[in-house]
Every structure is written in C-alpha cells, then in structure tokens.
Amino acid sequence: MTVTVRFAPSPTGYLHIGNLRTALFNWLFAQRSNGRFILRFDDTDRERSRSEYSEAIVEDLAWIGIQPDRVEHQSRRIALYDAAAERLKAAGVLYPCYESAEELERRRRLRRVRGLPPIYGREALKLTEDDRRRLEAEGRRPHWRFLLPNFADDPFSPRRTEMSWNDLVRGEQSVDLSSLSDPILVREEGSYLYTLPSIVDDGDLGVTHVIRGDDHVTNTGVQIAIFQALGLAVPVFGHHNLLTTISGEGLSKRTGALSLRTLRDEGYEAMAVASLAVEVGLSGSIEAAPDLDALGERADLSAVSGALSKFDPAELDRLNRDIVHRMDYGAVAPRLAELPIPSGEAEAFWQAIRANCAKVADAALWADVVYGGIAPAEFADDDLTFVREAFELLPEEPWDGETWSVWTSGVKAATGRKGRALFMPLRRALTGLDHGPELKELLPLIGRERALARRP
Predict the structure, then answer these.
(1) DSSP code at position 75
(2) Where's the Aminoacyl-tRNA synthetase class I anticodon-binding domain (predicted)?
(3) Nearest to 63 by CA among 277, 331, 270
(4) Which domains are assigned to the chain?
(5) Which residue numbers belong to the known binding site for ATP?
(6) Could you point out which of 153, 313, 330, 451 has its C-alpha 20 to 30 Å from the C-alpha of 141?
(7) How many CB atoms are located within 10 Å of the residue 256 CB?
(8) What are the DSSP calls for 207-269, one per residue?
C-alpha cells in the first residue's frame, strides 16, 4: 500500500500559516513514508472560488518546497459525486427533507425546552409520496440528509452507537452517532456540501491517511459511516491542533491574516515560516530547521499538543534571524545582485553584514552604508578633534582584514584613547551609526577614498 495523503484548500483566498501547518504535516508524513501528496482544490463553491487563488496556492506551496504529486479540482469531478449520491439514495440512506431554516430552528428550540438534544428528529422520513408532491408543488425543493446508522430497526428510536478510530494525533477516539443530526449532504439547489465530495475523492484517489485540523474531530464519526455506506476503504485519521493569533483569534483566508504571500513579501524566509507552522505546539523549543528533511524529523504527530497553539510573530522574527545569520553567499547571491555592490566584493560584503540582518532585504541598508553617501555624523568638540586627528592616520591602501587593527592601534598610541571612547567616534564617522558589523570586515569594503570623504 502506497501512503497517500491530501491537502484540500478552498481557493477562496490566500493560504495563511494555519493552512500551511496542515499542508506540511501531510507533506512531511508522505515524504517519510515514500508516499504521495495530492493537492485537491475544494472549489465547488462557484461564487467564491477563484482561479487566481488556485494559482497562488500552488505558487505559495512551491515557495515552501511542497510539490504535489497530483492536482485535482472538485469542480471537474461532479459526475462522481452525482453517482455516489444516487447509490446512497438507492440504498435508502440519503433522504429528501423540505424544512426551511426557520422551521428547523423552531424545532431545535422546542427540543431544548423539552430537555432534548437539539438534533434533527427525522420528521422528513414520515412524509408520504403525496406529501412530497404537495410540498414540491408549493415550490419547495428538498435538501438531502444521510441517515446515520444509529438505530436497530426504528430510525425514530436512535440508540447509543459508538464510531471509533485510532487517531494519529489524539489516540483512541469515539463519537456517539446518536448525539448527532443526520448531516445534510446535498443542498436544495443540488450543490454538494463539503462532506460527500471529500469522501468520494478520498476513496477514488486512494487516500490512505487524512491529516487535518481538530475542528473536524466530530465530523469524523459521521464520515466513517458514509465511507462504509459507499463501500469505500476508511482512511487512517489524524487531527492536529489549530493555530491562532497571539490574542487567541482564529486565522482566516478571507482576512488575509498571516498569509504566506504577505509573509514572503515582507522578506521572511520560507524555512522560518515552515518551522514555526510545524513546531508550534510540539514538545521542546522552536528552532529554525535548515530544510524540510530536517523539519520532517521534528514533525511527530503523536507529540502534537491537544491545546490551541498561538502564533507569535516575534518567534518568526527570531527564526528568520537565525536562518539569515547562517545563510552562505550562494543562497543570497541572486538577491544581492540587485544591489549596487561591486561584483568582486559581493561575497565579502555578505560575510561582513549578515550577522546584522534580520532579513536578507536588510542588506540594502548596509549597501547604502558601505557604498552610498551617508549623512555626516555630529560630534562634540573633543570627539570632533579626535576623529579629525584619527583620519590623518589612515593607512595607505591596499586594505585588508588587518587594516582596522593597524589603524586603531596607531590612533590609540597617538591620542591615548581606548575602548568605547576610541572605537565609537570612528564607527559613527565611517558609517553614520552607533552599531553595525565588525569594522575590521567593513573597512576594506568602504575603502580609503570613501572613508576620507566621510571625514568630518
């Protein structure tokens, strides 16, 4: 058996980091098992689904490093769902209902008043053919419910019926089908809700493992019953916890909260985003994985916390800094090529400044410091006199990694200054800043001509 998983986003907005969590748990699980990863677009909502979002999802996953083995669109598979619905109708487990939303709500309120659970009472099963013809003559169109197998002989006398499974994340799980309403699978206008198309696709595409958010746990008992009614193999389920914002709010594609597209545009590295998406809620500290293979070694589903996990942007900043500080020149060369850096100095420039970059884009700031024109620094009188004297002692070129030490040693001997009083005024004069990369590496890049031009 080939392990086969699927990631099934609705193309109604851009992916956010919570969606990525599900995609990565599936991708990494498949990679460890030499399995297949299917990207399935749940795009049967024709009003909200957009092709540009489908294209963006493929692009965003590729940025992370996820390449699907197969891509499917539910909108192109309607005939399969129609056939499955007809099979369920023929088996007598998909039945028509004519209640309006208002009527259903009124019945739920009455059941609550009577101390009963607010579930559907299967009143539609009592309708005769004449009743149905009369309702349809009045202009009503049926929605269709799946008859849960939670009774012996009489559907109006449900009994406790446990539907159990061994969850990859949560261990042994069980849902009592008698506590649930018969789910609606087909709307009045004939379109399908999520449940039936998803089950049909999982069966048709050979999905062996369904890994998704724990907001689907209760649905799983119902879906297992439908798998069985259709004669389809029931996959192994795993339900991971969900991500929220630091304030506890849920993430949403429609609001654009923490979308991958936004994070990428803001200069975050793909592995920083991927590491946080997976490691939040796992045991141990959150660390930046160098690649997806290393991240896969951390992605133990059985170690996922049962509680909601909060996404802290400060953690993302920290992970991104860690990655950038470790990046070698080859990884950033294409991006540095866009900056006004002499080609022969680009590698030395990156080695000098990377420890001072939270994002690769910060290199542009240091390119301005090294190769651009900086605003003159202001000095108190004693520092101004000191700096001017120090610049008189600038060594002749060529300059290398020892030039800073040679120069400052000479300045110390000539002026008697040492420590911060020696180094800080020189840094401010050369860079316009009180902080930054090691000047022994930066000074040869600045060069004698630019350095002299910065003499106050």
Answers:
(1) G
(2) 384-454
(3) 270
(4) 4-81+194-243 (3.40.50.620), 91-179 (3.90.800.10), 260-326 (1.10.1160.10), 329-371 (no CATH), 381-453 (1.10.10.350)
(5) 253
(6) 153
(7) 13
(8) --EEEEEGGGHHHHHHHHHHHHHTTPPPPEEEEEPPEEETTSPBP-TTTTTTBHHHHHHTT--
Cβ atoms 55, 24 nearer than 8 A: no
Q: Are 175 and 161 in contact (CB under 8 A)?
A: no
- pLDDT reading at 254 higher than 60: no
Q: Output helix, strand, coil percentages for the chain, rounded to the nearest 5.
A: 50, 10, 40
Asked whether the predicted pLDDT for residue 368 surpasses 90, the reply is: yes
pLDDT at 377: 87
- Within 8 A by CB and 6+ apart from 105, the residues are none
Q: Which range among 103-112, 331-340, 405-414 shows the weakest confidence by mean pLDDT? A: 103-112
Mean per-residue pLDDT, 152-174: 96
Checking 249-255 for CB contacts under 8 A at 24+ apart, the result is 250/18, 251/16, 251/17, 251/18, 251/19, 251/311, 252/13, 252/16, 253/9, 253/10, 253/12, 253/13, 253/14, 253/15, 253/16, 253/19, 254/12, 254/13
pLDDT band at residue 345 using 50, 70 and 90 as cut-offs: very high
Pairwise CA distance, residues 5 & 22, whole Å:
11
- Using CB atoms within 10 Å of the CB of residue 289, give its burial: 0 to 12 exposed, 13 to 18 middle, 19+ buried: buried
The phi and psi torsions of 354 (rounded to 5 degrees) equal -65, -30
